[in-house]
Amino acid sequence: ATILAIESSCDETSAAVCRNGEIVSNIIATQAVHQQYGGVVPELASRAHMQNILPVVQQALQAAQCELQTVDAIAYTQAPGLIGALLVGSGFAKSLALALDKPLIAVHHMQAHVLANLIGERRPAFPFLCLTVSGGHTQIVRCDSPLQMTVIGETLDDAAGEAFDKSAKLIGLPYPGGPLIDKYAQQGKPIYKFAEPQIQGLDFSFSGLKTSILYFLQKAQKENPEFVQQELANICASVQHSIIQILIKKLMKAAKETGIKEICVAGGVSANSGLRKALQATGERFHWNTYMPAFEYCTDNAGMIAIAAYYKYLDGQFSSLDASPSARASW
Ligand code: ATP
Ligand code: MG
Ligand code: FE
């Protein structure tokens, strides 16, 4: 089966083509317009999706050498995300499905992040655990099949990506700061310590860390106004280390409690080099089989929507033309 998938939940306009479970093209247009505002502006995201969606879909089809008429189903991100952004992708997908008389498949964005681990040669066996760390979510998901997933832990406040981005803002780095913290951290050492959250069970909290970093920087800059410039690499390494420790600790707890040793990561923060190293090291220590998506399938992309849609297609799970997207989503 050939599936054309569209992702438009936030600030990436993306289209991908999947043939029999293999991703043959994955085009991603990242919207630069938000950088000057220090965060995603929903109205501007919708407008940029409108401008990008046709060329992005055309490029995805072309890169896959795929004629639109040969597509067997059209998939789109239904939820969660920015409603105006989701409406652009869903409206486009529905129009195509109607015009081509092909079935429509609605995909849950967070489930798709998890299933990005099923793209490529090396795939986890079921059941597996996935630590999904993105801009809006931080979850530990138990995945029993491509169609059956349960959230067993999640953040009570900020997401891990938010923790990276908000810390970066405090340090004075531009948005989105996560990748920049990653870059500078590689030249530094985690010599500064911040408050650790005390949360029971498998849930996460990052708001205390953010406050701790704020107070630390205020105090240090009072004593030495040049502190951030002089110590940038060590500060970034310390922030990154703290976030990773919080994540890995809960992942270890989840693995122990479930007895599952197939362990994956997903979402934008899974592109972080420190987290990838920590996952590998922890995996070796506890004899886990660890998996991480290739970089292009970590942050938002239509490839992951296409792979999620492929399993729904095999199971005959189609969406009606009058289904509407929603900002929030249930599992
Ligand atoms: P959600 O999926 O929860 O709706 P989102 O789709 O906006 O949110 P993603 O695109 O998956 O989130 O990830 C974006 C986040 O990933 C941002 O917070 C960004 O800073 C972070 N990120 C990307 N690369 C890195 C990196 N190398 N190190 C740390 N954080 C990173
Ligand atoms: Mg994004
Ligand atoms: Fe996402």
Automatic annotation (TrEMBL):
GO terms for molecular function: iron ion binding; tRNA N(6)-L-threonylcarbamoyladenine synthase activity. Fe cation binds at residues 109, 113, 300. Required for the formation of a threonylcarbamoyl group on adenosine at position 37 (t(6)A37) in tRNAs that read codons beginning with adenine. Is involved in the transfer of the threonylcarbamoyl moiety of threonylcarbamoyl-AMP (TC-AMP) to the N6 group of A37, together with TsaE and TsaB. TsaD likely plays a direct catalytic role in this reaction. It holds the Pfam family TsaD. NCBIfam families: gcp_kae1, T6A_TsaD_YgjD. It is found in: Cytoplasm. Binds 1 Fe(2+) ion per subunit. Belongs to the KAE1 / TsaD family. It is an enzyme of class 2 (transferase). Its main location: cytoplasm. InterPro entries: ATPase_NBD, Gcp-like_dom, KAE1/TsaD, Peptidase_M22_CS, TsaD. CDD domains: ASKHA_NBD_TsaD_bac. This is tRNA N6-adenosine threonylcarbamoyltransferase. Its EC number is 2.3.1.234. Its cofactor is Fe(2+). It catalyses: L-threonylcarbamoyladenylate + adenosine(37) in tRNA = N(6)-L-threonylcarbamoyladenosine(37) in tRNA + AMP + H(+). Keywords: Acyltransferase, Cytoplasm, Iron, Metal-binding, Transferase, tRNA processing. Residues 22-306 form the Gcp-like domain. Substrate binds at residues 132-136, 165, 178, 182, 272. One of its GO terms (cellular component) is cytoplasm. SUPFAM superfamilies: Actin-like ATPase domain (SSF53067). One of its GO terms (biological process) is tRNA threonylcarbamoyladenosine modification.
